[in-house]
Amino acid sequence: xxxxxxxxxxxxxxxxxxxxxxxxxxxxxxxxxxxxxxxxxxxxxxxxxxxxxxxxxxxxxxxxxxxxxxxxxxxxxxxxxxxxxxxxxxxxxxxxxxxxxxxxxxxxxxxxxxxxxxxxxxxxxxxxxxxxxxxxxxxxxxxxxxxxxxxxxxxxxxxxxxxxxxxxxxxxxxxxxxxxxxxxxxxxxxxxxxxxxxxxxxxxxxxxxxxxxxxxxxxxxxxxxxxxxx
Length: 230
Fold this sequence. Notes:
By secondary structure, this protein is of the alpha/beta class. It has two domains: 2-95, Translation factors (Elongation Factor Tu (Ef-tu), domain 3); 105-229, Nucleotide-binding domain of ferredoxin-NADP reductase (FNR) module (Rossmann fold). It is built from five helices and twelve strands. The strands form two sheets. Strands 4-3-6-1-2-5 form a six-stranded antiparallel sheet. The protein has a six-stranded parallel sheet with strand order 10-9-8-7-11-12, sandwiched between helices. Helix 5 (204-216) links the parallel strand 11 and strand 12 (224-229). It starts with a strand and ends with a strand. The relative contact order is 0.15.
C-alpha cells in the first residue's frame, strides 16, 4: 500500500465527487488505462479503517490518480465525506484485467459512473496521440447525470466520436440520442461492428444485455471486455 495525499475534491454532477490523489513519496502505483485500485481510509496511526475498490479515471501518464466516486450513503462513502484536501489515504493496486491495450478500433460503452475507467482509456488515447477509430456510447438518465460533460465535448474535437444517450429526458439536445443503446443505434455509428473491440462498464443489467446483443450481432465474445456492478 502507498500513501497518497488528497490534492483536490470537486463536486461534479448529482451525488458524484471527483478526487485527485498524489503520492507522498517517490513511489507510486503504475497502472494500465482501465484498471482499478483499492482505496484505504486511514486512522490516526495510518492504519486501514475501511477500504473499497474504485476505477481510475486518470491517464497513467498523469502525476496524480483521479477517482470519480458516487455518494451512495453507505458505510464507506459516509466516512469518505469527512475527507478533506490535504488528508492522507492509502492506495493499493493496481488490479484488474479490464484495460485498453492500444487497439486501433474500439467502441466504449458506459452507463452512469461506469464512464470512469473508460475516461482513463480515452485520456490515454488522446494524451499519446494514438491513431485509430474510437467511439464512446454513454448512457445517462438526464443531462444532470453526465459526468465529464465539458471534457467529452472537447474530445469530439480530438477525434473521439461521442454519442450520449439520455433515457429519462422528454427532449434531448442536438447531437444526443433519446432512449437506450440498442442494435439500431450501434449499427448507425459502427458500420462494421464485428471489426471493433468493445469496452463496457456500468450496472450489471446494462452490461449483460448489451453483451448478449453484441454476440447476437456476430461480435466475437473475445472482442467484448467488460466490468459491471450490482
